[in-house]
Amino acid sequence: MAQAAQKVDVFVWEGTDKKGNKTKGEASGSNIALVKAQLRKQGVNPTKVRKKPKPLFGTGKKKITPFDIAVFTRQMATMMKAGVPLVQSFDIVADGLEHPALRDLVLEIKNDVAAGNNFAGALKKHPRHFDDLFCNLIDSGEKSGALETMLDRVATYLEKTETLKKKVKKAMTYPIAVLVVAFIVTGILLVKVVPQFQDLFQGFGADLPAFTLFVIQISEVMQEWWFIVLISIIAIGLAFREARLRSDKFSDAVDGWILKAPIVGDILYKSAVARYARVLSTTFAAGVPLVDALESVAGATGNAVFSKAVYKIRDEVSAGTQLQFSMKSSGIFPALAVQLTAIGEESGALDNMLEKVADHYEAEVDDAVDNLTALMEPLIMSVLGVLIGGLIVAMYLPIFQLGQVV
Fold it and tell me: DSSP assignment, residue 11?
């Protein structure tokens, strides 16, 4: 029976090198004796080794992101391709990592593998960082004796996927952030600045322009109810999030609406197609049967509409229907994706053609994000001009009219 993996701690050490120069640093290991032995192998004579104290508040460690996992996978693929044994590859990769939490994770996996577990089994103990798709692909690579090739494929898949996610986030985050700031500034002007002008206007003894009266009325409502408005906005946001988490029907409806949204919907649609093609290409190239590959793809598309379509395609393919016909009958995939899939099935190069589909739609997303950014800049400036400029005009309009009367 394989031994249980030992807990890995971080130790701070001081010592001298081969030339007698003082040196210090950090090392990971299960105990002080093991750390000292590792340091001696590296030509360091340790004089002091102690466990690194934990910070008073929190763990002091950054979270491990999917991009960090992509970096780890790429480095492991590089080590394996260079002919470095698997356990030694873990040590080399861990020594080069500056992310403490990721380094600890890598060393935990190494200890599991060194204790007799396979790579995929060690990864499955960390479901927060390695999903079923990742573990199944690594398991397939181990069983086929092509682990280094599979690591390279998985690394490429993760890098492409994370790049695509960043592009989509860029398209969504920038305009939302600017508009939120614009509305906050507008709210502050309505609550704090407009009342000062209102006091000034009371001494005019003349009727105010309709536009100015309208802004003053909005300001009075905001002054009296701003706290309720703020609470309501936060409550609506929290309710929306909880509804998406708790109600599959509501979440599916939102996913469908998002795909139909102008401009942004097209970007999310193309990114879902690209993700479908990328995952299916990677899994099918790894030797996973098409039906099983579609099972993995369904959970990786990131959209309920595509997920349901892929499950339906999986059922049809398992009944003997060709993939191209199932994709076409679903009515959700673009003609180009269906045509390239048909060519791939007929030529026996389905994984290569799906990779071309993924590359094409990833490039489409990239262009769409660039175009959206260029389009949003003047649009955002227009919104800012209407909101803030409109308030300024409304406040100064009575002063201009008074100047004309004088």
Answer: E
Say how far apart CA 110 and CA 88 lie, in whole Å: 9
- In sequence order, the 6+-apart residues with CB closer than 8 A to the CB of 157 are 278, 279, 282
- pTM of the shown model: 0.63
Q: Three-class SS of residue 261?
A: coil
For 165-192, write each residue's pLDDT tens digit. Answer: 787 777 777 777 777 887 788 888 888 8
CA distances from 71 to 10, 55, 65, 221 (A): 21, 27, 10, 52
Give CA–CA dist 40/380, Å, rounded.
61
How deeply is 134 buried, as exposed, middle or buried, from its count of CB atoms within 10 A (0-12, 13-18, 19+)?
A: buried
Q: pLDDT for 271-317, tens place per residue?
A: 888 888 888 888 887 777 888 888 778 767 777 888 888 889 988 98
- pLDDT category, 343, cuts 50, 70, 90? very high
Q: In 248-389, which residue ranges form alpha helices assigned H by DSSP?
A: 248-260, 264-285, 290-298, 304-318, 323-330, 335-347, 350-384
Angstrom distance (rounded) from CA 112 to CA 128: 17
- Residue 27 CA, chain-centre distance (Å), reads 31
67: its two tokens: 């991009």
Cβ contacts of residue 267 below 8 Å, gap of 6+?
Answer: 168, 171, 365, 368, 369, 372
